[in-house]
Design a protein that fits this description.
Layout: E1 17-19, E2 26-28, E3 39-40, E4 48-53, H1 69-85, E5 90-96, H2 112-115, H3 126-134, E6 140-145, E7 149-151, H4 163-166, E8 171-174, E9 177-180, H5 185-201, E10 206-209, H6 225-233, H7 240-262, E11 267-270, H8 289-292, H9 297-303, E12 308-309, H10 324-332, E13 340-341, E14 344-345, H11 357-368, E15 377-380, H12 384-388, H13 393-401, E16 423-426, E17 430-434, E18 439-448, E19 451-459, E20 464-466, E21 471-478, E22 486-490
Parallel strand pairs: 4-5, 4-15, 5-6, 6-10, 10-11, 11-12, 12-13, 14-15
Antiparallel strand pairs: 1-2, 3-22, 7-9, 8-9, 16-17, 17-20, 18-19, 18-21, 21-22
């Protein structure tokens, strides 16, 4: 017989919680649930399990320009199905590869990677179509933007409102591409407006930048003389390198504030180049992003502008100059105040020499060993290997790496939040569930000894859950990752 247990309104909402660095979950310092409601404190190990989907040069989606609506939507179905089969929980979808849009925008034109012609309406909205497919599967969708690349090749045509047409004085050629000048105030304003617009109109789960700030050097200096000289004429006192870093820092800060102003349930993070500076940590060699890309992840984390960093650690564990273990240890200990590290893993290398499933076994183990420092997940570049199930990687994820269900960690800004438990109604098969707040999952736990073990995560679009005989606890997880106490159910 099912004992029906109904949750009551939480009278202690807003009481202080502490974030558990091993789970990414919140734990109340005081019990916010009335004592006459049978509930249990539940939690499970959190982990972001993400995959990058690149649109630039038609790398991942769409596979080619000019697909019909049916063909393009079928490709999105395939991507979501692959992530679900691998037990992933997040897609990082490139919606702004070159100052354009893979979604309906009045600020920037439709991407040429959709139809072959910039500005041409593809007949559907790729971002919304992906959201419509991913969210019912419990998969997050993060909008991935390139902040400064205006054209991936300098010979492509452009139409208004593209930046090269509407703001031509603030774009420059470099290394066969066109770049927005980070020193121009209009560029900061444009990118910030794009972010605000995305957050306001789409139920995205994150805003994400990659590693392209000032471009990777081609042996020549970046041609920003005009904006630099204008800065000097205005009384600017920074040295030129510091000024360039400050330009990027001001964009990161502005975007952070824009996200926070628009939404409390959107995560903002950046995937920088995997080496901060040569010799940091000791023995590491390679490009100096601080000096050459004017990218300063240390400053961003110290300022508290990000929820996470996803350093692109695209080297093996036994690399002589860039060993994965040394790098993940340094990056995992960089974030502060509850920020996370989700290293980028080079899954596209799978099958090449030195890049087998055992290498990724090692990299996941090294990452998880840093869980106490906030390394609670990873993002794989890119999605193609799991679509192909290359070398059985999708199977390995489902049965080994990601066999245990996991929600992504709670947002940094929500570490002190509480959530009312769900309302539970009995059925012959199990329970029907409801909750007044926007949710991501129902978390179902099975009793095990004196504790609770995660059994499954059910997307919140589903309003009923089948339960077998036994003792269960059903909790709600909202879009911020905050988890309620579990309502106990006896069957």
């Amino acid at each position: 017989m099912l004992l029906l247990l109904l949750a009551c309104t939480d009278p202690a909402a807003g009481k202080v919680h502490s974030a558990d660095p091993g789970t990414g979950a919140t734990t109340p310092d005081t019990d916010p649930t009335p004592t006459d409601v049978p509930t249990a404190q539940v939690a499970h190990t959190r982990e972001l399990r993400g995959f990058w989907v690149a649109s630039v040069w038609n790398l991942d989606f769409p596979s080619e320009q000019g697909l019909s609506v049916a063909e393009a939507e079928a490709e999105l179905d395939t991507l979501v199905e692959a992530v679900s089969a691998a037990h992933g929980n997040a897609i990082f979808f490139q919606v702004r590869p070159e100052g354009d849009a893979l979604y309906a925008s009045e600020l920037e034109p439709w991407s040429r990677y959709l139809t072959g012609t910039q500005g041409r309406d593809p007949g559907y909205d790729p971002l919304q179509a992906l959201l419509d497919r991913a969210h019912p599967q419990g998969i997050e969708v993060h909008a991935w933007l390139n902040p400064y690349r205006a054209k991936a090749d300098d010979g492509s045509s452009a139409v208004s409102p593209h930046v090269t047409v509407d703001d031509p004085d603030n774009v420059v050629p470099y290394d066969g591409m066109i770049w927005m000048d980070p020193g121009a105030a209009s560029i900061l304003e444009r990118t910030t407006a794009v972010v605000s617009d995305l957050c306001a109109r789409y139920p995205i789960d994150g805003i994400h930048f990659d590693d392209y700030f000032y471009p990777y050097p081609d042996g020549t200096d970046f041609p920003d003389d005009e904006s630099w000289e204008a800065y000097e004429r205005g009384g600017g006192a920074l040295a030129r390198d510091d000024w360039r870093r400050d330009n990027v820092n001001r964009l990161v800060e502005a975007v952070s504030l824009a996200v926070a102003e628009q939404r409390e349930d959107v995560r903002f993070g950046i995937a920088p180049f995997g080496i901060y500076r040569p010799g940091t940590p000791a023995g590491v060699s390679g490009l100096d992003q601080y000096a050459e890309l004017y990218s300063d992840p240390v400053a961003w984390t110290e300022a508290g502008w990000l929820d996470y960093l996803s350093p692109q650690l695209y080297w093996t564990h036994d690399s002589s100059g860039q060993p994965f273990g040394t790098l993940i240890d340094w990056w995992a200990n960089l974030p502060q105040d509850g920020q996370y590290t989700f290293p980028g893993l080079y899954l596209s290398k799978l099958g090449e020499s030195g890049w087998d499933l055992d290498e990724f076994d090692t990299q996941l183990a090294l990452t998880r060993a840093e869980a106490g420092s906030g390394a609670l997940g990873q993002i794989h570049y890119a999605i193609d290997p799991i679509v192909e199930n290359r070398d059985g990687v999708t199977d390995r994820m489902a049965t080994d790496w990601y066999a245990t269900p996991a929600a992504s960690p709670v947002l940094v800004s929500a570490a002190a939040a509480t959530l009312t438990p769900p309302t539970v109604q009995s059925t012959a098969e199990g329970v029907e569930l409801s909750h007044p707040d926007p949710l991501r999952y129902w978390a179902v736990y099975a009793a095990e000894g004196d504790g609770w073990t995660i059994d499954r995560l059910v997307p919140a679009d589903v309003d009923s859950v089948a339960l077998g005989s036994g003792r269960w606890a059903v909790a709600a997880i909202d879009r911020r990752g905050v988890e309620s106490r579990g309502v106990i159910v006896e069957r």
